[in-house]
Amino acid sequence: MSGRVGDLSKEQEDCLQKFKERLKDVLKPGHDDYYLLRWLRARDFDLNKSETMLRNHFSWRKREKLENIADWECPEVIQKYFTGGLFGVDVDGCPVWIDPFGQIDLKGMLKSAKKADIIKAKVQLLEKLHSETFSDLSKQKGQRVESLIILYDLAKLGMKHLYKPGVDAYCEMITMFEDHYPETLKYAIVINAPRFFPIAYNIVKPFLSEATAKKTIILGTNYHDTLYRYISPEQLPVCYGGKRTDPDGNPTCRSQIGQGGEVPLSYYKQQMLSADIDNAVCVSVGRGSSLQVECEVAVKNSAIRWQFSTQGYDIGFGVYRRTTGERQKASKMEEVVPTHRVNSHLVPEDGSVTCTEAGTYVLRFDNTYSWTKAKRLHYLVEVLEPDTEDFTNPNSSQASFHIKPE
């Protein structure tokens, strides 16, 4: 049985009644069977886990003052440069959120707005989705609507999207979504997935529930026929093979779907330019010397991601791959990222590179040009391995992705 209203087993029905009894001290009139079953399904009808989850949710709502969230004014930079928007419905009449995530400037966003405000903006959208959008569509359809499709367009997604503070913020959003809006996702459809997508997916996978992972559908650039099984062309922008445009003919329907883009420097907040790097290693690079930080890459097509800052002065930086098993000078190693001077004393530097081969990689901090000043360096380096699951075979027993059969 699906565990939904009208499709409950005897055990599930008994569990629902016990759930109501346990929570009668906190339930309100709007907390009907549809609402309660979402929390039970999220914890596989484990009564204790479901109760803990829902009570934690009520405490969170009180702590975050969500009864007034609709009155909160979202910062302008988030309104203008965050991607996505509700647009149309799927073939079953459920709402669709279209998100051209490949166009978001995560770094610019985190340097212009507080992470807490970015997450709060998502909460505000989700609250409106549940209180207004689902309600309106349920009335139009004559039956309960309680889930949505998210269409992620990853065209233009690049290594810049591995910016660690941005990834961390996004993972927090996923956790918030899983903990407080369970069973809201019908499907997540990913189109234009780039070659390095397995690395990005492997970062967020630990934050996804098993149920969410099973609802994720990964498509490449030839996605239209499959997409139309879920969303008709009449409900899609022209840029995705649909028939809808803005009144001015814009094929991306940007009046309803935020298109992201580079955040102007005028939005940057000075106090965010010199933010500390969490868990950083602190060292001194002596005058006229260099520091080599080794990274062992065991799986080809992994990515190395770095953040670093210096105090008072710039420093040289480059990435190399060893050609022997012993320590080498930069001139003897394979150059991956050419050494260049970085003003990391003004703005913390971050970046990443894909390692097409396994081996020992070296991040080299160069202070050989300075004969009078040692450099105080804070750095954080991570190796991000790609996900090893089968992204092409939806029937693989290990795959987290599937194509819904026709």
TrEMBL record:
It holds the Pfam family CRAL_TRIO_N. One of its GO terms (cellular component) is cytoplasm. SUPFAM superfamilies: CRAL/TRIO domain, CRAL/TRIO N-terminal domain, Supernatant protein factor (SPF), C-terminal domain. It comes from Magallana gigas. The lineage of its organism: Eukaryota, Metazoa, Spiralia, Lophotrochozoa, Mollusca. This is SEC14-like protein 2. InterPro entries: CRAL-TRIO_dom (IPR001251), CRAL-TRIO_dom_sf (IPR036865), CRAL/TRIO_N_dom (IPR011074), CRAL/TRIO_N_dom_sf (IPR036273), GOLD_dom (IPR009038), GOLD_dom_sf (IPR036598), SEC14/CRAL-TRIO_domain (IPR051064). Gene3D superfamilies: CRAL-TRIO lipid binding domain, GOLD domain.
